[in-house]
Here is the input.
Amino acid sequence: MYIKKAAKKTIFTIVITAFVLALALSGCAERTAESAGDVYKETEMSMAEEAPAMEMAEEEFVEGEARAYDDEAQYSDTANAAERKVIKTAYMELEVEIGKFEKVLFDITRLAEKNGGFVSNSQSYSDAEGNFTSGSITIRIPHDQYNPALDTLKNMGTVKSISISGQDVTQEYTDLESRLRNLEAQEAVLLELMEQSKDVSDSIEVQRELSYVTEQIEVIKGRMKYLDNMVSFSTIDIYLFEPQPISDDPGWGFLDALKRGLRGAVSVFNGILVFVIAASPVIAFIAILLIIVWLIIRSRRRRRAKKEKK
Here is the structure.
């Protein structure tokens, strides 16, 4: 009996202890949940407060990237425009005042030399009295002085016609640079092979290929040098002339008519003389044929006369 009572007391104590522990644990769980909820709420509020700032920062980042891209694109366009190679040429017909041809021609020469250019070609023509009244001149002028030079030329007389053109050789020049780099790399490899080759036949083959590559390099360099020169110095062709003077004398007098008649007669005589000289070989050949025919006919007549006498 005593053992049974002791067992009941022990079981009752265990149950009470378990119940108390369960109540304590449930209270801690509730406090933990409440604290976790408070932390979650605080975190949610802080995120809500920081959301606008994050959105603004993101927008500023995107705008910064866009501005950087635009600046880079603008810089690229500017660089491409600066590196563009254009050959500029112009042709102009310029009427100058009577008696001013030689002066204007000298002014154009001085204009080219003053701006660092030069005259590449010049021709002058005189009238019946021996005065220079028309001609052409070609000047080469630095590309940055091209437009100012055209404006100066327009003020030297009356512009009758003008044409301006530009040839973009940027792509061709870029291709030449690429080909030149490749050929120079091939040349370096061939030179190395030349040093390493021990067989005579291999050395000759490498030398033949090296000569071809070197020739191509010189051709490309020559073309690039020509393009650089044409781009650096623009070409302007000018044809300048004085207006033809208007004569007040109609030229209907007796002396004028006599002069015109003599001139016409001399012209006709000169034409006949030129024709005779030009046709003299043909005339001589025809004369020889006629003489031969005449001799044949005369010999036949003599034979007939002798036969009739017999």
About this structure: The chain is about 70% helix and 15% strand. The longest strand covers residues 132-142. The CA atoms of residues 62 and 274 lie 91 Å apart.
